[in-house]
Amino acid sequence: MSEPNDPEPVAPLRDASTVLLVRDGAAGPEVFLQRRVTGMDFAAGMTVFPGGGVDPSDADAEIAWAGPGPDWWAERFGTTGPRAQALICAAVRETFEECGVLLAGPTAETVVSDTTEYRDARHALESRETSLAAFLAETGLVLRADLLRPWANWVTPVIERRRYDTRFFVAVLPAGQRADGATSEAELVHWRTPADALARWRAGQDVLLPPTWSQLVAIERYPDTAAVLAAQPVIEPIEPLVVHPGGRTVLEFPDHERYFADVPDPMELRGSAR
């Protein structure tokens, strides 16, 4: 019988945002994935969605904003308005930094169709030489919060040395834009259907942490991106529980039996939050 263990957390929680960037393909929705470089401190070598930790500058209140306001997002994610705003800004910033996709436009009804002219700003954001608020102000762009949808919330288990309270979002690739691998954090990027991504994981070609696996399983249920955007998933924090069945240390989370059935060594894939 599995016995839960509630050790003291080894690291404080940090807010993070992750974006499932989707597009329609011949076989259904495709998701943008990136394999993190092996030298990363967190989730090294894992195949993940674009995202990362919230930066202090993401809480800047002076920003042009279109779509549902921070209070709307706060209600969906069970948090405060200021924290929700920082999470949205982090989602937009990280997506631009990591794959060059910019969820912003000249007006509240338009979106940038070509981001190459903002290449220098992208590098400045990644190196923290500027903030998202400053970049948008300088370029006269409006953050398009309405292009995002709330999707899930995973919390890194207490046994990890880096812990994140990660909110997952969904966004459709804007027309005219392309996602790339021009980031120091990824060694390989690709668009794949969830079925293909999961098949590669089962074959040992890619490594998926439980949160990534869970979102791919969820997206696989939808026939196209319109259905994905129309979905209204119930969002409750999921924090994998550390248990010790038969003296082994494994994690329990929704559908963990299905996940671990295809993982040879559960301790190789302890449940991070991306």
Helix content: 25-40%
User: What's the CATH class label?
Assistant: Alpha Beta
**According to CATH, what is the topology?**
Nucleoside Triphosphate Pyrophosphohydrolase
Give the second-level CATH assignment, the architecture.
Alpha-Beta Complex
Q: Judging from the principal axes of the Cα atoms, what is the shape?
A: globular
Average predicted local confidence, pLDDT: 89
- State Rg: 18 Å
Task: Throw out a few tags for this protein.
3-stranded mixed beta sheet, 7-stranded mixed beta sheet, 12 strands, alpha+beta, Nucleoside Triphosphate Pyrophosphohydrolase, 274 residues
Explain what you see.
Helix 2 (81-99) crosses helix 3. The chain has one domain: Nucleoside Triphosphate Pyrophosphohydrolase, CATH 3.90.79. Mean pLDDT is 89; it is low at 266-274. The chain has helices at 70-77, 81-99, 119-126, 132-139, 194-202, 210-219, 225-230, 256-260, and strands spanning 13-25, 28-36, 47-48, 51-53, 65-66, 104-105, 142-144, 148-155, 163-172, 186-192, 241-243, 250-252. The radius of gyration is 18 Å and the shape is globular. It has eight helices and twelve strands.
